[in-house]
Amino acid sequence: MRVAGAYEAFGQYLQAIALYDAILSSTPRAVVAPDALNGRCWARAIQKQELDKALADCNEALRRNPQSASYLDSRALVHVRRGELDVALADYDASIKYQANVPITLYARGVARLQKGMKDAGDTDIKAATALDPKVADQAKRFGIAP
User: Fold this and answer.
1) What are the two backbone dihedrals, phi and then psi, of residue 26, each rounded to the nearest 5 degrees?
2) What is the enclosing helix (H) or strand (E) of 83?
3) What is the C-alpha to C-alpha distance for residues 83 and 112, in angstroms, rounded to an integer?
4) Distances (CA, A) of 17 to 21, 97, 138
5) How far is CA 43 from CA 27, 98, 111, in A?
6) Which of 118, 104, 108, 60 has the alpha carbon at shortest distance from 88?
7) What does the alpha-carbon distance between residue 131 and residue 9 come to, in Å, rounded to a whole number?
8) What's the CA angle centered on 70, arms 60 and 91, to 5 degrees?
9) What are the φ and ψ backbone dihedral angles of 127, each rounded to 5 degrees?
């Protein structure tokens, strides 16, 4: 898990996905850590690959831990990638409810709101995210999240 996380940290998402695949295929489903499912979901969402599988992973992780802000944030990105903005916004809202003031989540919700045509709300989120972390736009850009 740590190695897969390191791959993600260095932007090596395909390697992270391969490692998560190995971890998840060699572990009985009942004992799989939801973090592994979420990690693979996130990496697939970033890569815009196998989004149906990414959604299944996020849903299973959330079934096990429904109040995880990071799992909700991952699933929201999958929904954005699938063009399901209303569902994505609901997930971003829930993520922020459980863990407020996470700059990347606020920024991503702002971008999703802009895509939905909610200019004022989107700009407000992006401004709030940038106030919390002036470099959040750079991080978002690395994730493929941009207005």
Assistant:
1) -100, 5
2) none
3) 10
4) 6, 29, 23
5) 19, 22, 19
6) 108
7) 23
8) 75
9) -65, -45
> What CA–CA distance (Å, rounded) separates 114 from 46?
19
Cα gap 15→100, rounded to integer Å: 31
The encoded tokens of residue 105 equal: 């989540």
Distance CA 84, CA 111 (A): 13
Per residue in 118-137, pLDDT tens?
Answer: 999 999 999 999 999 999 99
For every residue of 35-69, DSSP letters joined together read HHHHHHHHHHHHHT--HHHHHHHHHHHHHH-TT-H
Tokens of 77: 């990105």
CB-CB neighbours of 8 under 10 Å:
19
At residue 95, the 3 state secondary structure works out as: helix
CA distances from 142 to 26, 34, 50, 133, 147 (A): 31, 24, 19, 15, 13
Q: Are 107 and 124 in contact (CB under 8 A)?
A: no
Per-residue pLDDT of 30-64, as tens digits, reads 667 899 999 999 999 999 999 999 999 999 999 99
